[in-house]
Amino acid sequence: MEQKRKLQVRNLNRVFEGAGGSSVTALSDVNLDVKESEFVMIVGPSGCGKTTLINIIGGLDTATSGEVLLDGKPVKGPGADRGMVFQGYSLFPWLTVQKNVEFGLKMKKVPAKERAEAAKKYIDLVGLTGFENALPKQLSGGMKQRVAIARTLANEPEVLLMDEPFGALDAQTRVVMQELLAKISRTTGTTILFITHDIDEAVLLGQRIYVMSRRPGTVKEVIEVSLPGERSHNSLVLPEFLETKKRIMDMLWSESNDAAMGR
Ligand SMILES: Nc1ncnc2c1ncn2[C@@H]1O[C@H](COP(=O)(O)OP(=O)(O)OP(=O)(O)O)[C@@H](O)[C@H]1O
Ligand SMILES: [Mg+2]
What pTM does this model have? Predict the structure, then answer.
């Protein structure tokens, strides 16, 4: 069956106007296509406009030109249909895990019983059952990010937008979180757009990877990733994994080499 189109980015440009008439072109003619239930990655060098791009998709920033379509309709600002998870955990420090996860539902005036049921489901999904009454300060970085993911999923967004969500975690915790997210993608079918500058992360999680050029960021290449079996830490040593990783490394290396040589 043909997968439904979920999120489209069309000819997106973003120019930041600086003081004294200087300007920075962060994004130049970016196009993306994300289908329903797909797990799509964007990888690119630091400063190439990845955060700018996801902020525009999330409605936190406005494009200079071009458009973002969700289910065929133009996006005009933030909305509950796009759930965002950032590197900083952005939890409410004075609320328990349970109350953090329920927060969006409370804002939507969902009744207490339904809220509690939803929170239970997503707390369980991210493996935090037993920590419902803990406060964020009592949790490790990985656990806080689990809460942030549960809270976002509890709102049942159409698309999950993630900007380097595991960037602050140590290498082992990172892989554990990547496996968790791969499982969430498989079991819930949530459409995920995930930004990273970590090539391993991109290949481990992505069904498709958009490789961006250095600033002004544009899509340099689109790579379909097919790895046998379910994505897990075991995927990291598969020949298919290493081949794809090498391809992307070469692409990004030529980008930084050109930059270093002033090309
Ligand atoms: N609000 C802003 N005003 C002016 N310039 C900005 C603004 N936001 C971003 N930029 C510029 O746009 C470019 C892209 O920034 P962005 O944060 O999107 O990059 P990035 O790919 O997310 O980088 P990183 O990998 O380091 O997170 C940078 O040159 C940055 O300085
Ligand atoms: Mg960024």
Answer: 0.94
